[in-house]
Sequence to fold (231 residues):
Amino acid sequence: MSKILFVMTAADHWTLADGTRHPTGFWAEEAVAPYEAFKAAGYEVVVATPGGAVPPVDRGSLAPEANGGQENADRVAGVLASFTELQHPLKLAEVDLADYAAVFYPGGHGPMEDLAVDAVSGGLLTRALESGRPLGVVCHAPAALLAAVKEDGTNAFAGYRLTGFTNAEETQAGLADKAVWLLQDRLVELGADFQEGEPWAPHVVVDRNLVTGQNPASSAPLAAELLKKLA
Fold:
């Protein structure tokens, strides 16, 4: 199998505690860095979203300050423009896991809005975990794990060592006090063994076939770990 599935948000906003909509989507670096790594390794990338909607990019993730300067911001924008698979996503409900060598979920605040409560995604995550396929999830995308509830009512990821965007990072980003819930808190509540690294530094946690990354800087190292598992 030579295809890797990108499961991506279809949400262009995140509803805050006061009911306002914070504009968001997927975070560019978290899609671009793994996309480049997987394509360079010879894999085909297929995108799937809830309803088959084109995943919206978080405009903030294209800004120079989010990319270490204008030069890299231009490079990221250029890769996104060449990432034509984004324009032709499958409907998540029509995905056949057997077609893919690995599954990857990029973050951004979008998954906090839709994938966190998407039972179809939750079922796919559960099957991917049980199949032994490499499963990569980065930054805010572990919100999708909240929907991976098994028939007995327990979460498929309970007991797994993992990471994701931390309370400290959400606080430093200025959104913690505006959020309805925080990702780190919810992952701990579902029974995961949450591993917190330094804010904004690359931090990847591997437990069995699950590979998780804490933040945007973790997306490239996470992709490298997934490729190791596919070798």
